[in-house]
């Protein structure tokens, strides 16, 4: 069964897409946890970071570069931003399709809750 992110990638579900490459798509989180909250998602489903293999090394690098570019486009280049990948139940993962959260527009706390 498709995840919500696969449905967004296949344009079966609407999303506010802010950027896109051949192997990834970036869209706004439906429940933003910060003034700027964008998800960067590989188009080829990978369940989570721990499921990635060396064959995915290239796309993993692209996701991080895309996240930094999205942050710049969101105007977060100077103020700063946070990149998050939730992995598994204790990591807070709710959608089993790898995604990089780009969060900014407010000061982040550390350690995270
Ligand atoms: P996770 O908790 O797995 O790291 O993050 C999943 C994120 O996906 C959550 O922040 C949640 O708000 C977001 N999300 C879940 N369903 C949808 C959806 O249908 N559209 C969008 N744009 N975001 C979604």
Beginning-to-end CA distance, first to last residue: 31 Å
Total domains, how many?
1
**Average pLDDT number:** 98
Low confidence ranges: none
Number of strands: 5
Choose one word for the global shape. globular
* Major sheet size, sense and barrel closure: 5 strands, antiparallel
What is the element string, with H for helices and E for strands? HEEEHEHE
So how many helices? 3
Q: What are the bound molecules?
A: guanosine-5'-monophosphate
List the helices and strands and how they pair.
Elements (H helix, E strand, L loop, with lengths): L3 H6 L7 E4 L3 E5 L7 E7 L14 H17 L7 E4 L3 H4 L8 E5 L9
Antiparallel strand pairs: 1-2, 2-3, 3-5, 4-5
Bound molecules: guanosine-5'-monophosphate.
The site of guanosine-5'-monophosphate has 14 residues, from strand 2.
